[in-house]
């Protein structure tokens, strides 16, 4: 855990900065992604008729070999094809979501610090040592790559497998690049010398 002793300032600073940037992104970028269904009141009433427990649902429901069945192929072609997340009823807790988000950003920054520290450190007599004076650009490259992957990786998966629009992925990719470059510059700036 020596990396935590040496890299706690950039870990905290980047988690706080990304937390603020993510709040701005949610307000400016992602609000435009969501649309109202045509006849959304009728859809809400239909979902209320058979209340579902919170979870992930698909329409039509298919698993593995079902795709080879003629009736399932027809159902998929006729549509609609939907991946639905049903949440718990009630007003969502903003404070709970904010805390969970901050913990996630802190976890990403900690993993990035761990990977970067181990990438640059050397082992001497069984003990890892951080070489001092690593060039700013080297730290930026490594931190940018690992942070960008951490923030954008899951969005690609959602577009490939669950029909999330590619424009949404591109917005998340741009957002992730901003988080990554910000994190990289902060890490390089606060890197031990």
Mind explaining what this structure looks like?
With 193 residues, the protein is mainly alpha-helical. 65% of the residues lie in helices and 8% in strands. It is built from six helices and four strands. The chain has helices spanning 2-28, 40-49, 70-78, 94-120, 136-162, 166-190, and strands at 55-59, 82-86, 122-124, 127-129. It has a two-stranded antiparallel sheet. The chain has a two-stranded antiparallel ribbon with strand order 3-4. A hairpin with a 2-residue loop joins β3 (122-124) and β4. α1 crosses α4 and α4 packs across α5 (136-162). The longest helix has 27 residues, at 2-28. The mean pLDDT is 87.
Question: Brief description of this entry?
Answer:
With 193 residues, this protein is mainly alpha-helical. Helix content is 65%, strand content 8%. Helix 1 crosses helix 4, helix 1 runs antiparallel to helix 6 and helix 5 runs antiparallel to helix 6.
**SSE string:** HHEHEHEEHH
In round numbers, the mean pLDDT is: 87
Low-confidence stretches: none
Shape label: elongated
Radius of gyration: 22 Å
Please indicate the percent range of residues in DSSP E strands (runs of 2 or more): 5-15%
- Overall tally of domains: 1
Class based on secondary structure composition and strand pairing? mainly alpha
Strand order of the largest sheet: 1-2
Instruction: Estimate percent helicity.
Output: 55-70%
User: Could you give the count of β-strands?
Assistant: 4
Number of helices: 6
């Amino acid at each position: 855990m020596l990396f935590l002793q040496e890299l706690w300032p950039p870990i905290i600073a980047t988690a706080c900065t990304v937390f603020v940037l993510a709040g701005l992104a949610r307000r400016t970028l992602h609000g435009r992604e969501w649309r109202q269904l045509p006849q959304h009141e009728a859809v809400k009433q239909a979902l209320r008729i058979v209340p579902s427990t919170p979870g992930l649902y698909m329409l039509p429901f298919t698993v593995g070999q079902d795709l080879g069945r003629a009736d399932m192929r027809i159902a998929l072609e006729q549509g609609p094809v939907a991946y639905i997340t049903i949440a718990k009823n009630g007003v969502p807790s903003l404070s709970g979501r904010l805390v969970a988000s901050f913990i996630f950003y802190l976890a990403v920054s900690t993993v990035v610090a761990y990977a970067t520290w181990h990438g640059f450190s050397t082992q001497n007599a069984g003990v890892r040592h951080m070489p001092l004076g690593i060039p700013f650009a080297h730290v930026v490259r490594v931190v940018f790559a690992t942070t960008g992957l951490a923030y954008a990786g899951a969005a690609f998966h959602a577009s490939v497998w669950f029909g999330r629009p590619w424009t949404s992925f591109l917005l998340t990719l741009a957002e992730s690049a901003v988080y990554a470059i910000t994190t990289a510059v902060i890490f390089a700036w606060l890197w031990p010398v």
